[in-house]
């Protein structure tokens, strides 16, 4: 599922731009100008139409709308619809509100012409294209200073789930978290805990509706995992926790079998052997 790997890479590397690190010495351009952000929140235009951008961020100098995409087609039509968002909606989510229109950017892993909007390329080395379309000079300067940063050298953000994922994609993001259910002394995890761990730092940035939607998707895929892949080793308790059954006993062969079944569940088709996929962990 390379398209899923690309989606996670896109989100992880974009979110890095809102954070900073001492080792290596890195201050994300959005962090540098004090932008705080929310994810997949509902906004209205002045005509009362709903819009739901991927990321909206705001700071003292202005605010931005950021669209993340791995699609090969231009996002210009969608980006254009964001211009009509009423800035008064900002007070629901962030402390810095503005009367002005936002700067609109797209974030991609490779360049696609998204029309008259700034674009950041975050696959490996940070690139900034069409920054001349930005009105916020502080933002333009911060992106200029950050150009050329090697995002692959930064500590990996362990985001494994993003709000826009479909159920079949969520399986891939849950594999490592589900493996934790078979660790010694694991007390199991609820669907909310699975969502919280999968979203990681995005958890506090999205709304209740989006969390509930993800929980429903997690419940569905976990139900399939229990019934059709690991019925002897995984269960949902009366307390609403997913945990290992009493039949499960720690043994490398058992763990290999579980890992293999999880691989089949997450990515149907030919799989690597357990030794190839997990022995190097």
Summarize, please.
With 281 residues, the protein is an alpha+beta fold. Helix content is 35%, strand content 15%.
Structural class: alpha+beta
How much strand? 15-25%
- The total of helices stands at 9
Number of strands: 12
* Low-pLDDT ranges: 269-281
What percentage of residues falls in helices of 4 or more residues? 25-40%
Shape designation: elongated
Helix-strand sequence: HEEHEEEEEHEEEHHHHEEHH
Largest sheet: 6 strands, mixed
Cα gyration radius (Å): 21 Å
- How far do the termini sit from each other? 20 Å
Description:
- It is a single chain.
- The protein is of the alpha+beta class.
- It has nine helices and twelve strands.
- It has helices spanning 2-16, 29-32, 76-81, 137-146, 167-179, 191-199, 208-228, 252-266, 274-278, and strands at residues 20-21, 26-27, 36-39, 43-44, 50-51, 55-59, 62-68, 103-108, 118-121, 127-129, 234-236, 242-244.
- The strands form four sheets. It has a six-stranded mixed sheet with strand order 3-6-7-8-9-10, covered by helices on one side. Strands 1-2 form a two-stranded antiparallel sheet.
- Strand 4 (43-44) and strand 5 (50-51) form a beta hairpin.
- Helix 5 (167-179) packs across helix 7, helix 5 runs antiparallel to helix 8 (252-266) and helix 6 crosses helix 7 (208-228).
- The protein is elongated.
Labels describing this entry:
281 residues, alpha+beta, six-stranded mixed β-sheet, two-stranded antiparallel ribbon, 9 helices, 12 strands, elongated, disordered C terminus
